[in-house]
Write a structure and sequence with these properties.
binds zinc ion; TIM Barrel; 44% helix; nine-stranded parallel beta sheet; 14% strand; 335 residues
Length: 335
């Protein structure tokens, strides 16, 4: 009797287990079938490298097809879309290292200070000026990585002040200067050395160079290197016959040319008069480019002058901002 009841209970348990297994099996088959359907949409899996779409239109099309599918849980492996997004490396140096200045829609003056890096205390004194200034360091200056990073921290923009041969044969442009008579490979070797002394600069301007900048072939050789490296060119205009900015213009290199030297006469009165000239030019034209040098009187004049700018509808701007402003204006003129 007990044996018979035990057999009956066992039979019931077996029936329940069989039922559960059958239900699970049916659910399993249905799940697999449901899963199968969207698999055909997995076009962009890793093994399918050769048929990867190449254009951005193809990518958008493929993305839409996948999004139309019913199952959004599929891991969508998009092709390497990063290739179409500009990377750090494709931003030219003159924009990558530009000091960003809010464009207040007012007239801009760039104050560039040349010949920096030799007298460290005078170089450092420009870091007390709010600016932004554009500081041009001689490649044979001392402790350049340290001096230039302090200038960057102070909010200033950097140039390499490229030494070039002057007309006056008694004036020495300095170590590894670019000279007219150099063979081209030595010229390029010196150029590479000059551009390797510190990082984070937007371009170059010439130190001296009243002779070399008159040589169109040498200027084209310089511009080729600047073009390759993404640098801008500021012509200090030490010769009225300079081929520098003309070569830059014809080769579509971002360029500008100096308007005013601030401190050829080293007195406060003379420097203030030159600053007034820069203001007048900026009012007429929207911008002006002035070059000064590391003299205490220049530092004193600039400190006092920059406080007067907000009331004059003028802002100090780095050289890159002036070039950018002119590029935008020229683009509008062409429309
Ligand atoms: Zn110089």
């Amino acid at each position: 009797m007990i044996k018979k009841r035990a057999q009956s209970v066992l039979t019931k348990i077996l029936i329940v287990v069989y039922g559960v297994v059958t239900v699970l099996a049916v659910v399993g088959v249905v799940t697999v079938l449901l899963d199968e359907t969207p698999l055909v949409l997995k076009k962009n899996n890793q093994s399918d490298v050769s048929s990867r779409p190449q254009s951005i239109d193809d990518i958008i099309k493929d993305t839409l097809i996948i999004e139309d599918g019913a199952d959004h849980s599929i891991a969508i492996d998009l092709p390497d879309i990063d290739r179409f997004i500009p990377s750090e490396a494709t931003i030219p140096a003159w924009q990558k290292y530009a000091v960003h200045t809010p464009n207040n829609g007012v007239n801009m003056i760039a104050v560039v200070i040349d010949d920096l890096g030799l007298t460290e205390h005078l170089t450092a004194a420009f870091n007390d000026i709010k600016g932004p200034l554009t500081l041009a360091f001689l490649p044979y200056g001392r402790n350049l990585p340290q001096q230039t990073s302090q200038a960057t921290e102070a909010g200033h923009e950097l140039l390499v002040h490229l030494p070039m041969q002057p007309q006056n044969k008694y004036a020495d442009p300095g170590y590894n200067a670019l000279l007219d008579e150099l063979p081209l490979d030595e010229y390029n070797r010196r150029l590479t050395w000059n551009l390797s002394r510190f990082d984070g600069f937007v371009g170059v301007n010439n130190h001296m160079g009243s002779l070399l900048t008159e040589n169109p072939a040498r200027m084209v050789a310089l511009m080729s290197v600047l073009q390759e490296r993404g640098f801008l060119f500021l012509d200090s205009l030490t010769s009225a016959e300079s081929a520098g900015y003309k070569a830059a213009k014809s080769m579509h290199i971002p360029y500008a040319a100096r308007d005013i030297f601030l401190d050829n006469e080293r007195t406060l009165a003379a420097i203030n008069a030159q600053l007034m000239q820069a203001e007048k030019l900026a009012e007429q034209r929207g911008f002006a480019i002035a070059i000064g040098h590391p003299h205490q009187v220049t530092i004193d004049a600039l400190k006092a002058w920059e406080k007067t700018l907000p009331s004059k509808n003028i802002q100090l701007a780095p050289i890159s901002a002036i070039i950018l402003k002119r590029q935008k204006e020229q683009a509008l003129d062409l429309k």
